[in-house]
Each structure stands twice: as structure tokens, then as C-alpha cells.
């Protein structure tokens, strides 16, 4: 048992050695985070150019980026209004209940993707539940299913 743990410790030590980076060059030592260097308006402009997936990834990059993104509800508003084109009732309801733009977007993003596919007729020719892709289905309320059913009946 002790031999196995010694081997594990040695393996971990060798992994650490592999990940040690060479000493930074002088130019890299002075490199700083643009969020900390630029005025907040400029950082906001840069982040506002990102799509939602990139914005979420950027928020996980470092603490300063996370603070800048998480504390700026306006960054999420644009994406939320895009989702509103498909989920108007849901977005308006969440906003009316006091949810932030970010929380509203997170609550409705995947629902809007699935709802859009249903409303565009992607699943119109599926004859049983087995034909539906399970992994991308998202739970929806009765009103949303009513909208989808009305669209199907009009086809």
C-alpha cells in the first residue's frame, strides 16, 4: 500500500515538473490585464462584441474579467433581447419578476433554442417520442407547449 502511494506521489511530482513553465522574459513580466488598464467603457465595448458562449468563457478566464462581466448587466441584455424574439412571454415574465438580464438569459437560453426548432417545424415529421433527440430537449411550461401546438396545427 505504501509503495503505491509513493508511486502516486512520484507521478504527481513528475506531472508538476512537466507543467512548470520556463522563466518569463522581461516583455512578458510587464504584461497586464486590459480590463485593469483600460477605462471600463472600453472593456465593456470589447466584451459586448462577444457571442454568449464566448462571454461565458471570458467570465471564467480570470477574476478581473469575471468581475467586469458579472457586474455589467448590460452585457447580458443584448443576448437576452435576442432570445426574447423566440421567448417573449418568458423573458417579459422573468424581467417582471425582478430577475437580472443575466439570470433571465440563463433561465431561457436553451428553452429558446428548443422552442425555435419546434416552431420552425424541425420536429413536425416525428411520429413517436423515440424520434426526439433526448439530449437537447428542455422542459417547457404549458403555455409554451400551447404555442408549439398551435404552430403545428397551422402547418
Automatic annotation (TrEMBL):
One Gene Ontology cellular component: SCF ubiquitin ligase complex
SUPFAM superfamilies: F-box domain (SSF81383)
Full protein name: F-box domain-containing protein
CDD domains for the chain: F-box_FBXO48
UniProt xrefs under PROSITE patterns: FBOX (PS50181)
The keyword Kinase is annotated on this UniProt entry: no
GO terms of biological process kind: protein ubiquitination; SCF-dependent proteasomal ubiquitin-dependent protein catabolic process
Membrane-spanning segments: none
Pfam family, one: F-box-like
Pathway given in the UniProt record: Protein modification; protein ubiquitination
All residue ranges annotated as the F-box domain in the record: 32-79
Amino acid at each position: 500500500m505504501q509503495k503505491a502511494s509513493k508511486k502516486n506521489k512520484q507521478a504527481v511530482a513528475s506531472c508538476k515538473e512537466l507543467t512548470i513553465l520556463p522563466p518569463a522574459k522581461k516583455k512578458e513580466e510587464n504584461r497586464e490585464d486590459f480590463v485593469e488598464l483600460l477605462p471600463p467603457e472600453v472593456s465593456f465595448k470589447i466584451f459586448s462584441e462577444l457571442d454568449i458562449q464566448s462571454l461565458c468563457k471570458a467570465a471564467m478566464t480570470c477574476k478581473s474579467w469575471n468581475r467586469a462581466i458579472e457586474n455589467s448587466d448590460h452585457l447580458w441584455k443584448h443576448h437576452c433581447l435576442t432570445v426574447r424574439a423566440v421567448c417573449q412571454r418568458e423573458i417579459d415574465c422573468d424581467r417582471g419578476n425582478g430577475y437580472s438580464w443575466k439570470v433571465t438569459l440563463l433561465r431561457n437560453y436553451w428553452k429558446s433554442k428548443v422552442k425555435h426548432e419546434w416552431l420552425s417545424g424541425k420536429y413536425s415529421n416525428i411520429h413517436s417520442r423515440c424520434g426526439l433527440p433526448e439530449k437537447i430537449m428542455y422542459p417547457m411550461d404549458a403555455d409554451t407547449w400551447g404555442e408549439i401546438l398551435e404552430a403545428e396545427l397551422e402547418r
